[in-house]
Amino acid sequence: MADALLAIALQRLASGVEQHIGDCRLTLVLGVDEEIRSLTDTLLSVRDVLEDAERRQVKEKSVQGWLEKLKDMAYQMDDVVDEWSTAVLRSSQMEGAENASINSKKKKKKVSYCVFSPFLCFKQVASRRVIALKIKAIKQQLDVIASQRTQFNFISGLSEEPQRFITTSLLDIPEVYGRDMDKNTILSHLLIGETCQEIQSGIYIVSIVGTGGMGKTTLAQLVYNHPDVKDHFDERIWICVSDPFDPIRISRDILEILQGESPNLHNLEALQQKIQMCIAGKKFLIVLDDVWTENHQLWGQLKSTLNCGGHVGSRILATTRKESVVKMMGATYVHSLEELSQEQSRALFHQIAFFEKSREKVEELKEIGEKIADKCKGLPLAIKTLAILMRLKNNKEEWESILYSEVWQLDEFERDISPALLLSYYDLPPAIKRCFSYCAVFPKDTVIEVDKLIKLWMAQNYLNCDHVISNKEMEVVGKEYFQYLAGRSFFQDFEKDDDENIIRCKMHDIVHDFAQFLTKNECCIIQAFDMPQGIGFAEERRKKASFQKVRHATLIGLQKYPKFFSTYKMKNLHTLLHEFSVISSIDEALPKLFQHLTCLRALDLQQNLSITELPKEIGKLIHLKYLNLSYCYSLTELPETICDLYNLQTLNIRECIALVELPKSMDKLVNLRHLQNFLTVALEGLPKGISRLNSLQTLEKFIVSNDGDNECQIGDLKNLNNLRRELEIRGLRKVEDAREAQEAELKNKIYLQHLTLEFGEKEGIKDVAEALQPHLNLKSLAIWSYGDTEWHDWMMRLSLTQLKTLELSHCNGCSYIPPLGELPVLEKLEIKDMKSVKYIGGEFLGSSTTTAFPKLKKLIFHNMKEWEKWEVKEEEGMSIMSCLSLLKIRGCPKLEELPDHVLQRTPLQELVITDSDILLQRYKQDMEEE
Description:
Low-confidence stretches: 21-30, 108-126, 159-171, 530-537
Strand order of the largest sheet: 17-18-19-20-21-22-25-28-29
Oligomer: single chain
């Protein structure tokens, strides 16, 4: 970790600071340029011994302390370099404004001159002299730390970075291995009928107990998703409990699953009553994963809720590492999960480690591999982790170095860290080590959004080194880092999108514990009820001292502690992720918060209903690169001072449904890459300056405004050719003609994958739509409220041959559907609310005589009120909808029948008909049989 932090400091000193020496003239302090060169040399010499130091810190507390000081210095350097870069950026912006003002005055023939003074730009950031003095002070402190390294006799030399290798797409690692008997035993206790004990003492509780990494959660998932379990229980509920045990949070999670939406209740008794109503008379299974509490009172609050109302035969399945928890819960049956046998351990290791290795190589390494597998002591997680690592290594010396590593001798640390994880961690490149350890900032069992994680890495400058060296976008580097870690089993429980990209994941509890071990003085997670009350003076001092070192924090429900940050001097925070409840008074604390936490790089305030406006003090956070305000439903405005955040890369305002406008000077946000503004329904326009943000990659919604002087018109999209992923364009009814529409140059937005065009049901819009033709490799298209009677040419020509998803909605002027059957890779088609369509026939399939809809899997018709007839006229040898698996018909009251071909000659697996009385009557029996 220290290596990665120093690498960041070196890279920023080299590429960022030195190029600005001539501009900033930091030589206001004599010899500061020499100080910078000397500082760089010292950093390089210290970095040379870091590999040895990081290995030794695990067992040598003095080395650990030395590294802590070094990391603290690296953070301080990053702060100073950030101040420096911001000063330069602000200076150049003000100089540009002054020059523009001078040119404007010259044009007006006024004989007046404005002499630009760079010092004006340092009112909000440190002055040049202060920055220079900070650099000198850091150099002096670093010299002291560097001199101390001699007493440890570190071994010098940086190893080469290992080859980056991604395994997730190639290797099918078994989730469960050697657990068939365990699975069958658990199933038997879940599926048996009511018992005498159950009738007498309440709900039947099954507990799986075992050490960390044994596979308790995986086994619970296996039985939870078993077909017999799905059929047996009316309701299945999975809750990640972890520590601390919070009955209100757990009850809210249960109720959210039962109701399918987040409950607007925060009182425990009200939640309990609602849960009892939802489970009344139902047989349910609730899994409580990772229980730690031994508090009878807390457990009793939850157990009493589940005991009342549920049907006899309901079950609780709990996983825990502690026998004492099992006793406290009063488990009916306790299943102790044992280690894998030696044979099973070796077989699992062999399956992963020797994948795609030659027979000769397997013979050479087999004996060493068996010994490595034996050292994992039958723990599935450890076996998988090391097997993946060994799969990347091909020579005998590398295998032997793992087998004989001193890490295996660290018995005194086995409660805190896994030797297998430590060995795999040592093998990571420094930059990826830093990215992994940062994940300790997330609470245990958090569902991690991969896109958000990468943006947070960006905000901490963790991706800059490879970004500069390889000339890749930071987002691409971040994705590669994530895939590298996922391939090494540092992440799990992947959720993927339609293109098989991982979009969400979790960390195993043991992996999370390991990350926290690595960052115990840097990352912390603070619960509301962790706050000290009535503690002694010595304990207060100790807590204050520990919190001063924290750089990344997640705070949960700090409703009553608005002065917490200043009290505990957490002014050095780089990350603040806050999970508030809806009754939080955080909006009152924000001004002081922003004044105190001036080192923040990332601030996440999402889902705060109490925030109505952001205070102007946000402009003091000059380092801020990531700001998440999503789902702040009461937020109505953003202050103009937010435009002083020159370093801001990500601004997330998704579903800020009350937000009515954005600040006018957003063109000052020259580093903004991601403006996430989906479902900002009250916004009626975007500031004109957004069109000048050439680094912008994400702009989820673009609004064409009537106010052409101050807000964006369609032509303001012209220069935003870096836009990626999805773009929704609203207000196209305000576009006057095709020439104006052509100025958007949508064809040049070649990185866009998903496009939505909303025309506002305006008639005579065909030429405008024609001018908005996107690039040919678009994957997803939605056309809303198209008001013309004729489709535009590029829709009829079907030139978008890479479309996988298409939606036509509220296109009420058109009485027919384009020949969509000719789209060669279309997989999902939705047609909604087209009031003029009465007949769908051969024109829908297209002109091909061989195939129509060759890849279509899902076909959905919704609210087609006037649709009466659907015909599929077959021709001999023609293949139609040969992949169709789902057909949904909803709100089509006049449709009389479905084509025989669709029902009988396609691989249709699911037919859903609702609000369509004629069809329901006709096909009721077929649907029941299905």
